[in-house]
Write a structure and sequence with these properties.
This protein has 7 helices and 22 strands. Strands 13-14-15-16-18-17-19 form a 7-stranded mixed beta sheet, with no helix packed on it. A 6-stranded mixed beta sheet has the order 12-11-10-20-21-22, with no helix packed on it. By secondary structure, the protein is an alpha+beta fold. Helix content is 15%, strand content 34%. Strand 4 and strand 5 form a beta hairpin. The chain has 2 domains: 110 residues, Immunoglobulins (Immunoglobulin-like, Sandwich); 275 residues, Purple Acid Phosphatase, chain A, domain 2, CATH 3.60.21.10.
Amino acid sequence: MLACLLSVVGLAAPSLAASTVCGPSAGASLCLTVPSGPLSGEQTISAVWSGTARSYTVEFRFAGSYLNYEYQSPYSFIWPTDKSLDGTYRLRARVHEGGIEGDYVSTVVHLVNGNMVSIPRSPANFRALFRPRAGSTTIAAVGNAGAEKTDELDLERYIESTSPTAFLYLGEVHEFGTWASRRDHYGLAAFDDPKGRGTLWGRMARYTLATPGNHERDYITEYRDYWHERPLWSTTVIDGVRIYDLTSECGANGGCRVAGAQAQWLRSRLARDSERCTLSFWHRPVVSMDSARSGPIMNVIWHMLARSGGDLVLNADTREMEELAPMNSHRQTGRPHSHMVELVSGAAAARWVISHTSDRRVAWHRYKTPGAVYVHRQAYTLQWRFRDSKGTLLRSGHVHC
C-alpha cells in the first residue's frame, strides 16, 4: 500500500540499506550497488569502477533488457521501479571501454509496487498539461540530448533562461528510451513533480511539444506514458503559426507511406487548416550532410506539406545544425516552387557522431557546437536564429509565409 501511494504522489520510496557486489569487467573492477530488500518507487542504483582506462562508460540491464547507460562518473541513476511488474529479477552492469564490452556484474532485486498484472500508466490528460508560456512569441527547438554532459546541461539551462513560449523537443534520448533513461537523462517532468519544478529538460515539460526519435523506436509505450498519452501526431497554433507535430518512426505511426494513418490524418488537416504560416517537425531529416541519419522516410509527408504551402520543417537526428536551401515537393532547389525550408537542430551535445557527405542543398552547417534554433513569426514571415549555449548568434534566416 505504501509503495502504491508513493507512486501516485510522485515521491521516492524510503531509502534502504545498500547491497554491493563486485567483479571484473573490461579490465576494471566494477562494483554494483543497489538498495537491499524489496524495492518500490524510485530507487538509486550506482556503480563504481577502478582501473587504468580513462573512457569508461557503464551499461545497466534489467531482466535481460537494456535499462540505462551512464556516460561519466558518478555512474548512478534514479530507477522508477514502479514502471515494471512486481517480481524477482536480475540486475546487471558492465563496463564499456571504447568498443570493448566487459563482463557483467549482477545481483538479484525484488520489486514490490503492487503491479502484479499490469503497470500503471500516466493519466491521458496531455491537453490540460500543455501550457505555452505567456509573454513570449519565440519557439526554441533541439534534439539529441540525454548524456548529461556539461555542454548539454549548459544548453538546457540557456534555453530555459530565454523563456520561449514553447520548446520543441526534436527527439532521441540517449542511450535508449526506457523509463529509467528518460527519468535519469531527460529528467522528471515538471507536471509530475509534486514541487512543480522538474529536472533537466523536464523542467520545460509544461510548454514542450515533443516527437520520438529512433532511440525511442522500441519504447513508444514508455514515450507516450511520459507525455501523458500525447498522440504521435497532433497539431496546435502558437502565435498564429500552425504547428504539425509529426513522427518519423514509421513502425509506430502506421507507416510513412501515402496510405499510412499519419499521412491520412495530415491530408485531412491540411485541407481544413487555414493559418498562413506553417511549421512542422519530426526527428529524421529528409536532406542532410549526414547521409547515415537522413533519407527518404518522410518524403511523402514532405511532399504533402510542400504542395500545401508548408513553410518550415524542423528535424534533428544528426548531431549538428544545418540550414537547407528552399526546396519544392521533390526536394529540389532553385525551381519555381522551391519554397519550404528544412532546418536541422540536433546539437544538444549528447554525443558527437556524424557521417559527413556533401550535398549542394545544404546552405549552412555547424558541427560540434552545442546550440538550438529559435523561430519567431514577424507578420507573414518565419524568422530563425541558430544560437549556441552562450546565446551567440551563429546563423539567421527567414521564409515568407
